[in-house]
């Protein structure tokens, strides 16, 4: 077995940070291409949006179970194989015009992305401890937020110049390049493997899911991310079909959203030593105000700036809340890092995809005002869960 060499640890850490946003990159890069894909493939808007949902569901559910496999069989070989399969699936999507082949490849992408990012999140727990570990885990959502910044911006230009297939050629090529670097510099990071037995694994999951603050944390970060899911699915059609702008403008709007998300994460990092619930209380109040103002103003004002400005405010608060609660949840079970990482990451995707796609499919969101109503509903639900989370954690620590 090729173990991680200490002289290459810095390079392997950088590679891990490159791969952590892969899930967001795989969804967001072709967001500006959704209308063009629907037209070129001769399918409905809902059929194309389903490709996003299938990726998120497959990635989310597989993350729930993959962590225990990685804790038992290691990270390196599984992650390397997953990178190869991910690249093949990406190229297959670019080469086909069959929507059902695309669906199948999106499911494969979801599973392989889960193997990769769960292993890379656990890599940090394997290789670092104490203040270093806390430092790196606090950077996770900041690094993760690079995908909503870079991916739609890049995807908009790729769509405009080369068509929607180019986004998937890019994903496949990126995976091949990183795989080559991984083979050269990385190695196995897990020093002590857990025996692979169904009964102990089920016991670990039960322990985690029975931990009330951990479960509430999953719900909070899932609801926070659902605001981005809803925006990502409906904004291309509002911007390109309602307002008549190009995919490049969709990319720019997502760029603003991504910068706001990352800024929230950076603010969280800068305020790391402040009391957790003082930060969360302030963030949810500001987010509720932004959601309410967007709803009121969008009744009579229909310019694209209402969409962009208030979405940025909502996603800034989401990034802040997400980063704080994500770091809290991930550090609750350091003795089962892979399982905790998988359950946390999977919970985000399952909750956000069910909430996001459920609202989109049932309400058929085609206007900024209806989008603002959905945002307001999600934020109100998030407020309720945060209050319960705060009450439980404070009661537990007394």
Automatic annotation (TrEMBL):
Q: Where are the transmembrane segments?
A: 12-31, 43-66, 78-101, 107-124, 136-155, 167-185, 216-239, 245-268, 280-298, 304-328, 340-360, 372-393
Domain Major facilitator superfamily (MFS) profile as annotated: residue spans: 12-391
Question: Which positions carry the signal peptide feature in this UniProt record?
Answer: none
Pfam families reported in the protein's UniProt record = MFS_1
Q: What is this protein called?
A: MFS transporter
Q: Which PROSITE patterns match?
A: MFS
List the Gene3D superfamilies hit by this protein, alphabetically: Multidrug resistance protein D
Primary localisation category: membrane
Key words of the record:
Membrane, Transmembrane, Transmembrane helix, Transport
Topology class, membrane: Multi-pass membrane protein
Which compartment or compartments is the protein found in? Membrane
By its UniProt entry, which InterPro entries does this protein fall under? MFS (IPR011701), MFS_dom (IPR020846), MFS_trans_sf (IPR036259)
